[in-house]
Amino acid sequence: MAVNKETVLTIATLAHLEIAIDQVDDQIDRMNRILDLVDEMQAVNTHEVRPLATPFDQVQRLRADEVTESNQREKLQSVATRTSDGLYLVPRFVE
Amino acid sequence: MADWQAVIGLEIHAQLNTRSKIFSAVSTAFGAAPNTQASLVDLGFPGVLPVTNEAVYEKAVAFGLGVGATINHQSVFDRKNYFYPDLPKGYQITQLDEPIVEHGHMDINCADGGRKTIHITRAHLEEDAGKSLHKDYAGETGIDLNRAGTPLLEIVSEPDLRSAEEASTYARQIHKLLTYLDICDGNMAEGSMRCDANVSIRPSGSSELGTRTETKNINSFRFLEQAINHEIERQIAVIESGGRVVQETRLYDPDRDETRPMRSKETAMDYRYFPEPDLLPVVIDDSFISAVRDRLPEMPYEKRARFQTAFGLSEEDAETLSGNRSLADYFEYVASASDPRQASNWVRVELLGRISKDSFNSEDVPVPASELASLINRISDETISGKIAKTVFDALWQGETDSVDAYIDAKGLKQVSDSSDLAPIVTAIIANNTKQVEQYRAGKTKLLGFFVGQVMKETGGKANPKQVNDLVRIQLDTV
Asked: I need a surface site. Which of A12, A79, B58, B83 has the fewest CB within 10 A?
């Protein structure tokens, strides 16, 4: 599998990342090197190698339905770029 | 329209009425000041971990049992990735391949009087997003994350619905079930239940599916019908004018009664789902499911049947009175404490004439069930007439009194049933209307009503009408 220009631009759009057009070739090259590395790893013979322990053998513990957190707005909004009337402000967006 | 058949499936999002959020121990109470109920987890700060609320599983299982569905012993959360300012993590935690509930069904009444089974593909747990406020912030959008992380049960139907009316009947039934089970408060105005409608059309008789559109975030049954009807008409117009329906997400605008495209079409949405690495699979055993089953309340159809047998109601009246849990509880209290048939009439005519069945909440009704029962009992024991009872009911409704008996006493509304009190009044009325007496005795017996009316007028409506009727007849016939 190899990445092409179209794939890179689609991923950039989905991730809301801006990639200058003269950087696209460099991105294609870097992503392909990552994929090559994956191919290389898959070539290793893992026959009879036991898998590592994984948390997916475990079961999730559930929490009782209780409210234990209190209002932290002031503290949390102290690191926000812009706020007003208790709201976080972001550049305008309308669907 | 006769040439076309609509194919409709609904996705219903129900907010589960837990005290705390699905993945954080933060209150879910509605109406708090912005961002006062949003923690590090809800805000998507790095390094924090979600912990799942057990109550969301109990409520989802209750729903599954209510629609005869399969409850999956193992369910897994996934990340659905998309960017939006009211979703600070950049992904929504939901369930894709292994939802908690699958393969349920709901029977609905059709317009032709028949019943139809609507299949429920799945119901899965997920978190709600925050709210965006576009007004009042010139050039900027305000974000309130209090709602972020509120538990949602997304109920997905098969495309079994064939008209806007069927879709709204199905949605109402789901709403009824959710409120009966007490897993969702059902308040659509506050967004506790919202619908997305998937609509396509195909030539009548065809079994192939047409291209569908999805109309999102409809928050009333009326808008649901309007939005679907609008979308059906729009698609027919597109196809009949030689066009092609485009698969897209649309938004219904109730002010203009139209749907319009919502998401930009330049890039197809790709949510890049993958298993949520911060949450292990959830495994529930049979004892968990049995415990939920043991706590299930009486289902709407069971209540309807019981109202018919216990209170002698018609199926239609029992259906109306069991249509909402609060209404059913209210009616049952009144019917158990007074004459059940009278209770049915008073609740259906006087109460539901003033409040719609869908929004009935006994806490908002100014006439307590105990007082309505007293009122009916005062009619049954002939303390007051039915006519006077309506004025007492109005007084209760207007808040002029909170006690039927105190009001009857204070206003002197007691019915006069004593013959020795009524007889002299009847005699006087007969003596003062000699012309009508002659006509009556000449055979115009319809005039009986005239005399009864005069006596009722004289007593300010307080005379026992049956007693007056008898006394007038005796005096007219025997003198």
From this structure: A79
* pLDDT band with cut points at 50, 70 and 90 for residue B12: very high
Lowest mean pLDDT among B10-19, B150-159, B309-318: B309-318
Whether residues B248 and B364 share a domain: the answer is: no
Q: Write down which residue in B243, B266, B288 finishes a domain.
A: B288
Task: Tell me the CATH number at B463.
Answer: 1.10.10.410
Residues B134, B113 share a domain: yes
B403 burial class (0-12, 13-18, 19+ CB within 10 angstroms)?
Answer: middle
- Identify which of B60, B92, B96 has the alpha carbon closest to the alpha carbon of residue B284: B60
Mutate which: B20, B23, B26, B35, vs A, most A CBs within 10 A: B35
Instruction: Name the residue range of residue B430's domain.
Output: 419-478
Reference A55, options B275, B98, B100; nearest CA is B275
Nearest CA in chain A to B55: A65
Element (H, E) at B437: helix B434-441
Q: Which of residues 34-73 of B touch A (CB under 8 A)?
A: 34-40, 43, 51-55, 57
**Do B434 and B379 fall within a single domain?**
no
Q: Quickly state the pLDDT bin for B369 (edges 50, 70, 90).
A: very high
Rounded to the nearest 5°, which phi and psi values hold at A61? Answer: -90, 135
How many structural domains does chain B have?
Answer: 3
Amino acid at B252: Y
Neighbours of B88 (CB within 10 A): 18
Q: Does A67 touch chain B (CB under 8 A)?
A: yes
* Cβ contact A69–B24 (<8 Å): yes
CA proximity to B128, closest of B252, B38, B218, B227: B38
C-alpha B463: how far from chain center? 41
Contact B263 A95 (CB under 8 A): yes
Question: In chain B, whose CA is at the least distance from the CA of A74?
Answer: B36
Q: Which residues of B touch A56 (CB under 8 A)?
A: 280-281
Q: Do B308 and B440 have their domain in common?
A: no
Q: Are residues B133 and B80 in the same domain?
A: yes
**Inside any domain, residue B186:** yes
Whether residue A15 is predicted with pLDDT greater than 50 in this model: the reply is yes
Question: Is there a domain that residue B293 lies in?
Answer: no
Per-chain mean pLDDT for chain B: 89
Residue B207 lies in a domain: yes
Pairing type for strands B249-253 and B213-218 reads: parallel
Residue B82 lies in a domain: yes
Between A65, A71, A76, which is nearest B53 by CB? A65
* Cα(B32)–Cα(B37) distance, integer angstroms: 7
Q: Which helix (H) or strand (E) holds B202?
A: strand B193-203
Pairing of strands B101-109, B193-203: unpaired
Q: Say whether residue B478 is in contact with chain A using an 8 A CB cutoff.
A: no
Q: What's the Cα-to-Cα distance from B204 to each of B1, B7, B111, B209, rounded to whole Å?
A: 9, 11, 19, 11
Which among B175, B199, B177 is positioned nearest to B189, based on CA atoms?
Answer: B175
Task: Quote the crossing angle between the two packed helices B434-441 and B448-458, to the nearest 10°.
Answer: 150
Tokens representing B474?
A: 């005796």
